[in-house]
Amino acid sequence: MSYHFTQEECRNLSFASSKEWLLTNGIGGFAMGTVSGVNTRRYHGLLVAALTPPTERTLLFAACDAFAILGKKKIPLSTNQYPGAIYPNGYQFLSGVQVDESVIWRFQADGVDVSKAITIEPGKNAVKLEFTNHGKKAITIQLVPLVCFRDFHSNFLEREDFPAKIEYDQNQTVIEEGNHSFTLFHTDALRRPVHGWYYRFEHQREIERGLNPKDDLYCPCELEFQVKPGQSCSLIGSLEIAHDIQSPPIASKKKSVVQCLEETASKFIVQTESRTTIMAGYPWFSDWGRDTMIAIPGLCLSTGKTDIAKQILRDFASQMEHGLIPNRFVERGEKADYNTVDATLWFANCVYLTLEQDWDIDFATAMYEKIAESIRYHRHGTLFGIAVDPKDGLLLQGEPGVQLTWMDAKIGDWVVTPRHGKPVEINGLWINMLNVASWLAKKLGGDSNQFATLIKLATKSFEQKFWHEGVKYYMDTVDPNDASLRPNQAIAMSLPFSPCDPEHAKMALKAIERELLTPVGLRTLSPEDPNYHPLFQGPMAELDEAYHQGTVWPWLFGPYIRSFIKYGGSQSAAKAKLSRVSKMLTEYGVGGIAECYDGDDPHFPGGCPWQAWSVAELLSVMKNELAM
What we know:
The mean pLDDT is 95. The strands form 12 sheets. A 9-stranded antiparallel sheet has the order 1-9-10-11-12-21-16-15-14. Strands 2, 3, 4, 5, 6, 13, 17 and 20 form an 8-stranded antiparallel sheet that branches. The chain has 2 domains: 3-238, Beta-galactosidase, Chain A, domain 5 (Distorted Sandwich); 257-623, Glycosyltransferase. The chain has 17 helices and 38 strands. By secondary structure, it is of the alpha+beta class.
């Protein structure tokens, strides 16, 4: 779907700089920026390439200063922020911006009428910057490409030895650094091989996060194109060999919220030679096991991509160690992280949902073997203190200094919400996994009774230990007990094989609706709790402290809406609770759903502008539970 911004919105620098766009290439690379054109994050740029797809993401083509020259008039077509200054000020000449599969800016002033479009090529680390002259007279387009080679989490400062080499070939300029050559293709341009540094670009979002906001960028050359009325010129930046990048068609029809979410869903799916996976969020997250398993039903199953779901599950299963799938694949290095108690439990749930939608005996057999292996490890004890308590059949987890549940914020050595012992959603997922194994064994003609005793014990213990008759909701953890009102109980209530008593679940939902439910998701802690943080703002330490202490998460709409419908709520009432989703698609990442929001009104968005499980869970419940 096309998202349009008016002249008034575009020329409001604060507003336009708060709206971020994203283009992805399907192998982990992306282009990202703001409607104003200002790079407000160190992750913003025309090309962040995945050097070893889908990881080792590296900012190569950071920006490109651009001007349209007509006679003595020089109209800027780009915008940068420096300390105390904005230059160029192209945003002041914008008449509109359109965000679709390309991003198109329209500049109009003093007889100049020019559009600038950015398109990223699927499956390649390549981006195209195209300028079209819509005016009545020929103009000169002047470009100053600005490059760097840096990890996208870091900063870049002037270096005497950068770049290692520059080659000025016909119609192209090649910048070599390390083992890579980044090429600027500029057919029909007048090139001036002048080069040098532009200093102290400033990223406002990094200032807000308390991180280094400065970058220096390198200019390898200046380019000029003569462009007649109705004609275009282009600059392609690529790690690949030269070829044109076709601009996708612009959507002509308005689409529903569900259709918009389906379009956004495709941005997170990555297919490379090494694996098929889901990026947890743009710009900074890679593929996390937990996030991937929560997101698969919405991103893959709800969009008919069951083959992709199966391949992702196979790829993660192939990396199982000690009965655990990876928590995340690291950006650099060969060894994945396994510090998660729930990713493998979500994996089992995802296998069940995939096979429910598309039964495949070979896939079922392979996945049953992995689930049964994982259960054996859990029963005998695996990494990080994860083990079944033989007294009650429930799952214990935790060791000092390690965060294992989805509430995983850590500041230095301080785990903010350790939740050691037996967390409610972990045990809901554990009992669900046991039932999935039993279901699979029966479907495959095996012995399903081998899980019956443990299922019966754990299910009985769940209600006995977690239900708190005094407060009328489920405790967040037991052994040790924590009766903080949190949304994790909704996860346990929503599962296909939930251990929750229906009458207890209905009462718990009332508590959730009273204190946790907001128009943008569920709070992670009741506002009545003394540890509640109303705002998700400030430097990184403050953000991490607030992360799961009141901050609202949209992905929790998924388990909440499933539970609401499951325990008697109407579809019309559920739809009313999602009335802000359309606005959520445009209030932060354009076309995306934010990672989280402030706990208090007016619920400003924060975290990742595009979060996979936020999109996935909304899409899943809107298509499945609500038939939208």
